[in-house]
Specification:
Largest sheet: 9 strands, mixed
Radius of gyration: 17 Å
Strand order of the largest sheet: 3-2-1-4-5-6-7-8-9
Number of strands: 9
Strand content: 15-25%
Number of helices: 8
Shape: globular
């Protein structure tokens, strides 16, 4: 008899300090009651103070990991994080032909500390090969600007970038405005409609892994069958609480609290 347990897959890099990447994704999946699977794309040497080294795995090894998962415990939602290079992106895009569930693409380009997690020649491959398979794209301001080829400095720029990125294939684009001044406002463009998600800005240096955790929460909720707008709203509540209740670990930009609980759970499917 098939299991009724929701399953989500993360295809991303490893952060040995546990604040971002695969480690953050799996902890977030677990917090939402979702069984998490993980395909490693690259290994980092990092902690809260910086990234010392990044090593990409072979594209063939990434492909074999994905095949192993899909052939035995197929996920109900998939997300990608740091993919590293063109070869890995092309391998993931090829595998995405067999996905029978929503794909969330978090286009991780640089780490919290400014280390490159995506080669420059891979950006075109991301746009050309992977985004046509995506259900939801979740760039921050810098990533949105790089992918759209425009400067994104305000709400108007976020909207322009979302419209341009939606032409690349994903039916839904969520631009994260965490680096804007004032309230933390994100904009979702989906089914021709705009939805804003706003939360108070929290003054803290402990924001390592916020993008990974936010997109993982959305992915987990999609795996549970929650509709997209509700999933983004609930994930926004979760990441805000995770930042507010950060465990304040490490001497640098510490991780958020992956054990955080949504303040309200009224936005259900």
């Amino acid at each position: 008899m098939p299991s009724s347990k929701p399953v989500a897959l993360s295809i991303a890099g490893s952060d040995p300090s546990g604040g971002a990447g695969i480690q953050a994704d799996l902890k977030t999946f677990h917090q939402f009651g979702v069984y998490g699977e993980a395909v490693i794309t690259l290994i980092t040497v990092q902690n809260t103070m910086g990234v010392e080294r990044v090593e990409c795995l072979s594209a063939n090894l990434v492909s074999q990991q994905i095949h192993a998962v899909l052939s035995d415990i197929p996920p109900m939602a998939v997300k990608t994080g740091a993919l590293g290079n063109r070869e890995i992106i092309e391998a993931v895009a090829q595998a995405a032909h067999d996905f029978r569930c929503p794909l969330v693409v978090d286009p991780v380009m640089v780490s919290k500390h400014g280390a490159s997690l995506l080669s420059w020649d891979a950006i075109d491959a991301l746009k050309t090969h992977l985004l046509p398979h995506a259900f939801l794209l979740t760039p921050n301001l810098h990533e949105a600007g790089m992918l759209a080829g425009i400067e994104v400095r305000d709400i108007a720029g976020m909207g322009a970038a979302a419209l341009k990125l939606s032409t690349l294939g994903p039916p839904a684009v969520l631009i994260k405005g965490g680096h804007l001044a004032g309230e933390a406002t994100d904009i979702l463009f989906y089914q021709g409609e705009w939805t804003e998600f706003t939360a108070p800005r929290i003054d803290t240096r402990h924001t390592h892994g916020t993008g990974c955790t936010y997109s993982a929460a959305i992915t987990a909720l999609l795996a549970c069958g929650v509709d997209l707008r509700s999933a983004v709203g609930r994930a926004k509540q979760y990441i805000t609480e995770a930042i507010r209740t950060s465990p304040r670990l490490g001497a640098g930009a510490g991780p958020v609290n992956h054990h955080a609980v949504e303040k309200t759970q009224s936005n259900t499917d």
